[in-house]
Design brief:
Elements (H helix, E strand, L loop, with lengths): L1 H27 L1 H16 L2 H12 L3 H25 L3 H9 L4 H39 L4 H10 L4 H30 L3
Helix pairs in contact: 1-2, 1-4, 1-6, 3-4, 3-6, 4-6, 5-6, 6-7, 6-8, 7-8
């Protein structure tokens, strides 16, 4: 359980962080969006289950491959939510920031990201549950420990149904708990909108 949770939390943090930066870049630059979007969509459209064995071959069976897989599955929904959220910022807020001679960095950090926070956090709620899936897929593809490996063990033991259900319930509870934590963070940061 601990191994899987570490993979989930680290993969989510890395994926959400990279997605936040990418989402801001895509929202602010149509050129960046035109250049990067086809690759991002192709990466999202390719099933992670199909990519996982390749990633394990390239990065080995250690933590790095699991983080790459988990990061990839988290990245897209958070990046899209960030981009959409920032593009939905009230133009009057941006105009007001410009009238105060705010720098580009100030506009991003003090106007756009705070105004887009509900959308960004919504993407993160989706991303945190996908991080659980990413960690399990990574463990299936090349793990030595973790809940994904335990599912493989249950399947290999002539379908040890009690072990399989115990693992699935643990995964479901983990996903729900992480989702609720993100919901609490969202309520704390943006209130009940």
């Amino acid at each position: 359980m601990q191994t899987t949770l570490v993979e989930v939390l680290l993969g989510f943090a890395i994926g959400a962080g990279l997605a936040l930066v990418t989402g801001v870049l895509l929202a602010r630059s149509r050129l960046a969006e035109r250049l990067l979007s086809p690759y991002l969509v192709a990466a999202q459209a390719t099933p992670i289950l199909a990519l996982a064995p390749l990633i394990v071959l390239w990065f080995g069976t250690g933590l790095l491959s699991k983080l790459v897989i988990t990061t990839l599955i988290v990245f897209f929904p958070v990046a899209v939510a960030t981009m959409v959220g920032i593009r939905s910022v009230d133009p009057r807020l941006l105009e007001m920031a410009r009238s105060f001679r705010a720098t580009g960095w100030q506009v991003v950090t003090r106007v756009e990201v705070p105004a887009a926070l509900p959308a960004i956090l919504g993407g993160m709620r989706v991303g945190v549950t996908l991080a659980v899936i990413g960690a399990i897929v990574a463990e299936w593809a090349g793990g030595e420990t973790g809940l994904g490996v335990l599912i493989n063990v249950a399947r290999g033991s002539l379908f040890d149904i009690p072990l399989m259900f115990a693992t699935l319930v643990t995964l479901a509870l983990t996903g729900v708990a992480l989702y609720l934590v993100m919901l609490l963070v969202e309520r704390r940061l943006v209130g009940d909108r």
